[in-house]
Structure formats: structure tokens, C-alpha cells
Amino acid sequence: MDYEPYEPAWLLNSTVVFLVLVVISAVTLVTYRLYLSPLAMIPGPKLAAATGWYEFYYDCLLAGKYIFEIERMHQVYGSIIRISPCEVHVKDPEYFLQLNSSTSKLNKYAWYYNFVAAPDAGFGTISHDLHRTRRAAVAKYFSTANVTRLEPLIQKCVSKLISRLEEHRLEGKVADLSNAYRCLATDVITEYALPRSRLMLDSPDFAAGYNRVLRDFTNIATWHRHIPIIFPIFNAIPRWAIAIIDPGPSLAVFDNQKFFKESAANIVASRGRDKREPTVLHEISNSNSSLSERSVSRLIHEAQTLVGAGTETTGNTLSMTTFYLLANPDKAGRLKKELMDLGEDRGQPMSYQALQKLPFLTAVISEGLRISSSVAGRLPRVSPTAAMEYNSYLLPAGTAVSMSIRDVHFDESIFPDAHHFKPERWLGDEKRALEEYLIPFSKGPRSCVGMNLALAELYLVIGNLFRRFDMKLVDTNEEDLTMAHDFFSPFGPTDSKGLRVAVL
What we know:
Blueprint: H1 9-36, H2 46-50, H3 53-61, H4 66-77, E1 80-84, E2 87-90, H5 93-99, E3 107-108, H6 110-113, H7 128-139, H8 144-149, H9 151-171, E4 174-176, H10 177-193, H11 208-226, H12 230-236, H13 239-245, H14 249-269, H15 280-285, H16 296-327, H17 329-340, H18 352-356, H19 359-372, E5 381-382, E6 388-390, E7 393-395, E8 400-402, H20 405-409, H21 431-435, H22 451-468, E9 471-473, H23 478-481, E10 485-487, E11 489-491, E12 500-503
Parallel strand pairs: 2-8
Antiparallel strand pairs: 1-2, 3-5, 4-12, 5-8, 6-7, 9-12, 10-11
Helix pairs in contact: 9-10, 9-22, 10-16, 11-14, 13-14, 14-16, 16-19, 16-22
Transmembrane segments: 12-36
GO molecular function: heme binding; iron ion binding; monooxygenase activity; oxidoreductase activity, acting on paired donors, with incorporation or reduction of molecular oxygen
Cofactor: heme
């Protein structure tokens, strides 16, 4: 007897029904986003309004290129554009100042800032009110007075950098200043925020492999924003497995995370009994905040973001400023003359207080901060309860409204020849008017808490290096340092060797 093969018709029918429902749901969602959403009237590409895959393509598959597509959109559609189903981007310097005023009480956009993977850190905090509490616990430590008090700590790192560069001079070796600056910034912030420095400046090649892996991690962080299981998976990989896969730089990054965890645990365990010089993490642990705000997790996340934010941004600004000085010998010569006219021993370190009084150095620092714009990523904000307005557009509560520091810094109506390095623009009568639009650390309640520390590093490094050494560029051009990828900080082309100099 022949039997007909059994066909689970119910399974086939269920699959068909499921697929039909998926298609109907997708069509309904796209129709709503394009025609019924309160944001439907905002100009922009229909594909960007319909799906987040548009951003995914540019930021993940093309590796941090959405920033350039957003620039193109503004050229086509105007000052306000819809860049995703739930987010609009505004290019307007005056609106930036309004949105980030001192009285602003906006939240961060949770989806966007998920790339940090550190919700307990001040930087990753979404709620305005909770952020204000968390910032208060560390603000005193980053005050101008405290940075001045701890200047010897920064000077120690600058002196070590000078010593390393002197070795390169004597040996006739080309110095990789991009990675040297990253190492210095890492040593400063870890000494400042953690129980001990990471001593990156001791690395013979200025930790080139480690810094390369960190660049890869910033790219991965962009993927994590869209696929938020990536970092949990990485954190679940045991150390022995990473040691087999990549026993060098990747293992160093893993051990860095282990260092953060051990430091946080030790500080919490010794709360009230630690007699060492307090650090930022000690300030949090010993604050009057609730126990949950002084937890090990909170300290780990704060350590991660402080080191991450304090390394690449400062390192990039130092690299860009140094490059443009060396590419413009007349400006480098003018700076060196100003530094040498102080008449002190060339071998003695210059103090932060003395360097701040130098007008051309101050102009160089300001222009370096502007042209480097070391926070490339957009800064989306959300009003949770009230609608926001821009021109004739009413943006309902819950809408992510983003703006970019770069758009202000490269606005030709404010900074003529904006893509040219012109410290002189900060010496004339227009200086006071321009200062309002110099926003490298953003503005308002969410401005960078470490700005005073960063400024001290910039003055002490640029001032002391250009007083001590003559340098010239080696196989380095502007394209090597110009942003090719936006991983929140700007990164140059993947094949760039960074800022390479001969120390004379």
C-alpha cells in the first residue's frame, strides 16, 4: 500500500500567516513614519525617515560615514532635516546655543548614547536630573582650582614625553606623535582619576598596537548602538580565549577593563580608610550620594568613560594643533619666539599660569580646539514632556533633536576661511564675539566636566614642546589627520600613519 507523505499543513499555513503579518506590519509602520508621524513634514530622504537601516548602512557598513551624508542632506534640504524615524538634525549655531543653554533641562537620547555601554557614568546618563546629581559628585575635582593644585601630576607626564622625544632626537628616530599624545592623555587621566597611572608613555612604540585596537573598539561601539548585544558578548569572552586570539593589543585592552574593575572594587572596599591622595573615583565613593550612586558598577563605568573621553579627544587636538603649526613655519616661529622671550631656562618646564598669559599661544590653543573639533559625533537631546520649536516646525515631546559642534566651528559666517588654521582670528577685536561660538567642550549642563584638565594639558604640552624642540613633519600631510570616520571622535583614514615628526 502506498502512503501519501505527511505534510504538516498547519505549519505551512502558520508560516504564511506569519509572513503576511510581518509584511503588513512593516508596510503599516513605514506608512505611519512617512505620512502620519508628527515628523513627516520635516525635510529629508524618505528612506532615512522610513527606517534606521539607512543610518546603519552609512555608520556601520561604511564605518562612520553618516556624518558626511548628514552634511549632504543639509546642503540639499536646508537647516533642519530628518535623519532617522525618530531624530531630526539642525544646523544652526544660534539654535545650538539655545538648545545647550545653562538653563537647559533636556535628556540625552538613550538609543544614540547606548554606544557608550556605561549607563552608570555621568556621560552615559540619560536623565537630566540624575546627571546633575552625578556631575556634582565630581565637578569639584575638575575645577580650575583643583587642576592647578594637581599641575605637578600633569607636568610629570609632560616631562616624560619630553624625555622620550629627546631619546628620538638623539637616536635620529621619527616620532609617532599621534600615539605619543594619546599615551600622554591616557597617563594623565588615569593618574588623575584612578589609583595609579597606566604608564603608557613607557611603551617603546607609544603603544601603537594598543591604540590601533582602541580605534577598532570605537568602530565596534557604533555597531553596538544598532546591535546592543555586541559588548555583552565581548565581556563574556574569557581572558584565555582572547590570549589565544590576539595575545598583544586585544589582551591589553581586556586587561585595561580588568584594571578598571579592580580599581573600583578596591576603592569601594576601602571607603573611608584609604589614606592615599584621593582621585575622581574616591570623590564619587566618598560623596554623600546614595549607596547605589557609589557602587562598584558606577565607579567602573565612570572610569571607562573618563579614560575614553580624556584620551582620544585631547590626543586628537594636540595632533591637529601640532600639525598645523609645523605645516605653517611662520606660525610655529611666532609661537617659539613668544615662548623664548620669557627668558627662562629652556630646559625648565613652563608653568600653566605663565603659559596662559601668552596671547599667541592662547590663540593657537583656541584655533586648535576649533579646527580639530574633537567631538565629531552629533549630540542628540530629548525634551521628555514639552514640545520644542525650530523656525515653523513644532517637534513633539520625545523627539530626538541633534546638533553638531563641527557645524558651529566650520560655519563660514562666523569663522571665515573656517577650514584654514588661523590663530590670528583670536587676536583681533572680534575675539570676544568669536568666543561665544568656540564650543569644543559643548555648552550648558552637559558640557565636558573635564574641560579644565584638558585645557591644562593643551597649554603645558604645546607650550613646553615648542619651547624645547624644533620639529619637522615626516611623510605626513593634512589628509592623514583629516576626519575620514566619525566614531564619536574624528578618526583619519585607516591607512594613515598619523602625525610623524623628526625631532631636531
